[in-house]
Structure formats: structure tokens, C-alpha cells
Amino acid sequence: MSETTFPLIGTKAPSTTRIVPVILSGGSGSRLWPVSRASYPKQLWPLVGDRTMLQETALRGVGEMFDAPIVICNNEHRFLIAEQLRAAGIEDARIVLEPVGRNSAPAIAAAALLVAETDPDAVLWIMAADAVITRPEAMARMMPAAAAAAQRGHIVVFGMHPTRPETGYGYIEAGTPLAKLPEASTVASFIEKPDAATAADLIVSGRYMWNSGMFVFTARTLLDEMETYAPAVLTPVRQAVARRVSDLMFQRLDTPSFTAAPDISFDYAVMEHTDHAAVIAGDFGWTDVGSWDALWDISDKDDNGNVSHGNVFLEGARDSYVRSDEILTAVVGVEDVVVVATRDAVLVTQQSKAQDVKKMVARLQSAGRREAQSHNRCYRPWGFYESLIQDSRFQVKRIVVTPGEKLSLQKHYHRAEHWIVVSGVARVTRDEEQITVHENQSIYLPQHCTHRLENPGRIPLVLIEIQTGSYLGEDDIIRLEDTYNRN
């Protein structure tokens, strides 16, 4: 593929051009707690608009100039991500599973190695799954110029025109324009997330842009630069890719090899060292929605400057963000605050302190609080469950099973279960029996019995589960057989 095959900005890409969108979906978004948690992070939520952030990101890479996307995520989210992509009409994505989190450099290296297996000169477009772009048409107009620079050996980063002295973003200083590519410039310097005073100075200077974390390069260029500047990353990741295995519709990177890679960002590993960095300035309405005040900033507001979602009533509030996913949340006479209520946690903070939510999450983790990591509703490949009541020797759950799906064949050492069907039809395996349970019927599963729950119908199966026993932890599940290859 020659460097002249890709047109400059504003013209149509030829059909032979191949751009591979690569979506990184490994973050937990702890500054958007309690909505975003490790078990169900912000990219899986529809925080802006009707589609989730992952879906919006994936749909930016749909069109004649793009190949099937690669999504790199962790094992826990694999079925959620697959389902969300299908719901968005994306059926051909390659979902690659990281066995452990190792920051962006190893993930990007894995994507480049996978693409290079079939076309080392293919252009990759790296995107985080949790950013918002309110003007995607402006982004699309810049892609030809970025790809043209990439085909000439550059690693291109999109720089966003800053609108405020943001301390949560890195910054880029543009250098001289590239020859024959006036839309792109060399990179004079990178500055990591500054303090407030430094950020204000950078804005006043007018020379700096926000680092969007979106990169465009060819697989060949990226691997050459990693060979030079980050061999400690590339070597184990190369082994992890070579030793990967297929698991249902997923590709699992080799655990020992990938674990040996250092935990390092792409900026630190490559961008701050390479001589081939280039930047294209853009005004795409970009934000990484890294905090509640950032979400307030980009959302539609009422006449008093408030943003409200869900079961919310406001009286005399101004310039505030209020969200409730379930319970009634009434806010009276406050200004510049964030109030977020979920089923099991409530957050209240000043907007100016929104970046400090991450510190609170760290404290909750240190205290061993489940709410730091997990939601009350836990999603599984067959559906979800949520705890309604819990005490020392009993627990009541609601279980919803998707049509055609089934739980693992399992047993418990420490608890018995009583299932009551609320809607739908359940097919229950209990030791040697197979029993059909209809609405308003129930079945008892004694301690130690082998059992399985299936939904053979065409509507969701909803049941109430009552657990009793001396220990009710989720680790008291002995899986004997599982459709989804879970250990």
C-alpha cells in the first residue's frame, strides 16, 4: 500500500484503503462512581443519549473506509460488550480478552500485532470506549488526513482545542506543519495531567491542546517504534498474541505472557520518545467524561442550569447535576452540586470537587466495601440477578434469564434455594429430574443437589430466589458444566 493511495482531508477514501478501528475498553471510570464501577463501568452506560458510550464509539468506525473493529476488554465484561455491539448492529467485531489490566501500551501493541498478521501496512485508529464526541461528522472529515500522515510513517494523535483549564487531561504542544500535510504538525512537547495553576497557564499561552488519546498509525510503524522504545512491552505481548486461544466468539491472550508485560500507558511507552509523533488539531466536541462535572458541562440544561436524570425533583437548585436510577431524589436550594443516587449508594459533592470522587472510591476499597467495585445488579451471560433482601442466614434475589439461555449445572455446599416463577417458564434440572415450572409455581432445591435453570420460552424468565443456609457467598458455586466456558 503506497503512501499516495490515501487522499487528503475532504475527499473520499478509495475502496482499497483499510482502517481498523481499535476500541480500548479496560477502564473502570471510578470518578463517575456510584454509576460507574469495575463490574459495570461507564462505557457500558448510556450517560449521554440513548446508546451506551461503547456503542457510540463503535458506530464512529462504521462505513466504507473501515474494516471490522477490534475491541480489547477484560474477561468479566466480554458478554456485556458482545451483546451491546450486537444491539448496535455490529456483528463482526473481534473481541480480544486481556487476562489482566496492563494499561494502554500492551493493549495497543496486541491490536497492532493482530492486524499485522494479515496486513502490516493497515491503518489503525485507536479509541477509548468511554469518550464522547458531539460532532462526529467533523471527526470523519479529519480521518483521511490522519490516515495519510500515518501512511507516511507518523503516529498521529488528535489534539482537542481546550475550553477550560482541565487538570484531568494531558496536553500537547504543536510544532511545525508537516510537509504536504498542512492539517498535521509535529509535536513539540507532551505535558501530563497538570495542576490547576499550570493548566491555567497552558490555556493562556494558546499553544497547547488537550490530548484526546485517539491515535492513528500503521501497524508496521507502531511495531517498529515499540521495538525501539518499548521492547519490554512488545516481547511478552507478541508471545501473548502468538499463544492466544479462541473461546466461543472471543480471543483470549495468553495469561503468563501478557502478565509479564509492564503496566504502562502508550504515551509514556512510545509517544514521549518517538520522533514520528504528529498532531492534528480538531474541534469535535470531545470529552472523556471523566467526572460528573464534565458530564454536566456537555449535557442539556434547564433554565436554572440544572441537569437531571431519572426520578428527580428539584426546588430552588441551580447549576447542579442530579441523577437517580431508582429512588425518588429531591434536591432543594443548592448550587453547583452533584447528587447521584443508585439502589445501593448515594454520592453528594460540590462540582469543583468532582475529581476527588476517585479518592472516595479508594477509601471504600480499603474498607472492603463491595459497593466500591460492584453494583447490586450483577450481569451474567444468561441475564442478571439482584439482591432484594439479605441477612445472616437468608437472602432474597430477583433472577432474570434471557430467552434460550441457561445457567451452569451447579451445586452448593452451604445453602438451599427455593425458586418462585413470577413470569415466563422455567425448565429446572434437579439431580436426575427435569421439571417444568410455570408462573406462580415454585420448586425447592436442597443443599448439595445438582441443579440447573433454563429459559425455554420466548419471553424473559423472572423468578424470586430465596436462599437459606450458613454461608450465602457467590463463591459457594461449584460449576459442573457451563455453556459459557466459565471456570
Automatic annotation (TrEMBL):
Record InterPro entries: GMPP_N, Man1P_GuaTrfase/Man6P_Isoase, Man6P_isomerase-2_C, ManC/GMP-like_b-helix, Mannose-6P_isomerase_type2, NTP_transferase_dom, Nucleotide-diphossugar_trans, RmlC-like_jellyroll
Gene3D superfamilies with a match to the protein in the record: Jelly Rolls, Spore Coat Polysaccharide Biosynthesis Protein SpsA, Chain A
Domain Nucleotidyl transferase as annotated: residue spans: 21-302
Record-listed E.C. numbers: 2.7.7.13
Recorded GO MF terms: GTP binding; isomerase activity; mannose-1-phosphate guanylyltransferase (GTP) activity
GO terms for biological process, alphabetical: GDP-mannose biosynthetic process; polysaccharide biosynthetic process
Residue intervals of the Mannose-6-phosphate isomerase type II C-terminal domain: 368-482
Entry keyword set: GTP-binding, Isomerase, Nucleotide-binding, Nucleotidyltransferase, Transferase
Domain MannoseP isomerase/GMP-like beta-helix: 317-364
Pfam families, per the entry: ManC_GMP_beta-helix, MannoseP_isomer, NTP_transferase
Reactions mediated catalytically: alpha-D-mannose 1-phosphate + GTP + H(+) = GDP-alpha-D-mannose + diphosphate
EC class: transferase
Family, per entry: Belongs to the mannose-6-phosphate isomerase type 2 family.
Full protein name: mannose-1-phosphate guanylyltransferase
Source lineage: Bacteria, Pseudomonadati, Pseudomonadota, Alphaproteobacteria, Acetobacterales
